[in-house]
Amino acid sequence: MDLLVLGHVTRDEIADELRLGGAASYAALAAARLGFPTTLVTIAPPDDPLLAPLRAEPGLTLHCVPSPVMTTFRLAYRGGRRRLALRQVARALVSDDLPARWRRGAASAAASPGIAYVGPVAGECDGALIATLGARFVAVGLQGWLRAPGAAGVIEPALACEAIEPPRLDVAILSEADHPDAEAIAERFLTAGALVAITRGARGATLRASGAKWEIAAAPAVEVDPTGAGDVFGVVLALALAAGQPPPEAGAAAARAAARVVEGPGLGRLG
């Protein structure tokens, strides 16, 4: 199964360290490391040294649309909670940024696109972009749709539940920490026909589909750095579901992958 990942890679400032971040980078690296041919489409300065791990990963093709800036966050962890501040942001992705074979109506039967995982961090992938995808299976990590910078760029929950207009998706993933209306937002995507996953950190995750609900236990882990675990949970869940695994099995596979990620910085002990 070929995988397309969309979203901004980010420059993450953590204490005195700079790291590659962003849902799209974690998802793409994890999928490639797990053996899935992956194309990542992002917006960033093409020669930025932070992109080196993406270029070096076997099985991962980086399609970097040039930008003078890379989306940048300042991260701090206090009392087990993460505080984000947006320092600069690249432009949004548009349909013209997509490789031609991934645009709706452009793929031949011999090169039918597979799975798309959309991981916005700052609203850079909207419903109109998703509508142009020719993928047969589409999953979205909702985090970047549910927040906005407030005073001094500090990221805060944004949008009332009623303002969310779900596009047609196969899977929607969000964290209970993303938004105070996470459960109601999940309900809206469920009503629109998506399978919905709500991640709950060390308490596991809940998967819901029409008329069904599954509680997924977190896999055992020694947590060192939780950054990226939810993104890896989302992409592994999507890949497993697209391959035909039942939701409980797909959720358990995603939980195992996320557990390995928290055991170190970057992708931790995954792969």
Description of the molecule:
A nine-stranded mixed β-sheet has the order 5-4-1-8-9-12-13-14-15, with helices on both faces. Strands 3-2-6-7 form a four-stranded mixed β-sheet. A two-stranded antiparallel ribbon has the order 10-11. The longest helix has 15 residues. 22% of the residues lie in helices and 29% in strands. The chain is an alpha/beta fold and 271 residues long. Helix 3 links the parallel strand 8 and strand 9. The model has no long low-confidence stretch (mean pLDDT 92).
Q: Quick recap of the structure?
A:
It contains six helices and 15 strands. By secondary structure, the chain is of the alpha/beta class. The radius of gyration is 17 Å and the shape is globular.
Q: What's the arrangement of secondary structure elements?
A:
Blueprint: E1 3-6, E2 10-14, E3 17-21, H1 23-33, E4 38-44, H2 52-56, E5 60-66, E6 71-78, E7 81-88, E8 115-118, H3 127-131, E9 137-141, E10 147-149, E11 155-157, E12 171-175, H4 182-191, E13 195-199, E14 205-209, E15 212-216, H5 229-242, H6 247-261
Parallel strand pairs: 1-4, 1-8, 2-6, 4-5, 8-9, 9-12, 12-13
Antiparallel strand pairs: 2-3, 6-7, 10-11, 13-14, 14-15
Total strand segments: 15
β-sheet strand percentage? 25-35%
Report the end-to-end length measured between terminal Cα atoms. 18 Å
SS-based class: alpha/beta
State the shape.
Answer: globular
Q: List SSEs in N-to-C order.
A: EEEHEHEEEEHEEEEHEEEHH
What kind of oligomer do you see?
A: single chain
Major sheet details? 9 strands, mixed
Strand order within the widest beta sheet: 5-4-1-8-9-12-13-14-15
Number of alpha- plus pi-helical segments: 6
Mean pLDDT: 92
